[in-house]
Design goal:
The chain is mainly α. The chain has a single domain (about 25-200), classed as Tetracycline Repressor, domain 2 (Orthogonal Bundle). It has helices spanning about 25-45, 50-55, 60-65, 70-95, 100-130, 135-155, 165-175, 185-200. The two termini are about 30 Å apart.
Length: about 200
């Protein structure tokens, strides 16, 4: 399980002078490049053609290289963006959903993150070696997201008081680790409902 649960962020860099906020069109280009790059890297691995990524994103190669000068930087950005989305989803779901539904939605998103990790991590590892240490800072963000959601569900009376949030994650990671078919995600998503039902308070 440690393989999945320690890959969360780049090392903190020394503080630098504040930079200008990117223009809206530049930010959209960056987001589009990351979206297309994720699909390309998960499909073709580290050897996905960067010029093809730029073309599919609707930008010129120069625009891609201005945002991501190297293949390594693009891979790292794709990986980190997926993890940041996962961490940010916890508070977002908590504000818009009932406790049990917020937890369920986050666990389903966690499954998608596992899938992205399985496909993107080997490509990243090809270029930079042991990538785990680069993402360790986001480990606490993910933990805080799931802990807060579970705590909220417990306080609402919808979950058992002795529920350990990490048990939920370990169960889902376990399904991914023993998967022998491409449809493991569907099994994992069914398991989410089983886990939630099994975590209900006993009568």
């Amino acid at each position: 399980m440690q393989v999945f649960l320690t890959f969360f962020d780049m090392p903190m860099k020394r503080s630098q002078p504040a930079q200008r906020k990117p223009r809206a069109d530049a930010q959209r280009n960056r987001e589009r490049i990351l979206e297309v790059a994720k699909e390309a890297f998960t499909k073709s691995g580290a050897n996905a053609r960067l010029d093809d990524i730029a073309k599919q994103a609707g930008v010129g190669p120069g625009t891609l290289y201005r945002h991501f000068p190297t293949r390594e930087e693009l891979l790292q950005a794709v990986y980190r963006t997926e993890l940041e989305k996962l961490a940010a989803a916890g508070p977002k779901f908590a504000k818009t959903m009932m406790p049990i539904e917020a937890l369920r939605a986050w666990l389903l998103l966690f499954i998608d993150a596992i899938a992205a990790k399985q496909l993107i991590a080997p490509a990243l590892n090809t270029l930079v070696g042991d990538h785990k240490k680069m993402f360790e800072a986001s480990y606490s963000q993910m933990h805080e997201a799931i802990r807060s959601l579970v705590k909220r569900a417990i306080e609402s009376g919808e979950m058992r008081k002795d529920l350990d949030s990490m048990d939920l994650l370990r169960a889902l990671v376990g399904v991914a680790n023993v998967a022998t078919s491409p449809d493991w995600q569907q099994s994992a998503k069914r398991l989410v409902d089983i886990l939630i039902m099994g975590s209900r308070p006993t009568a």
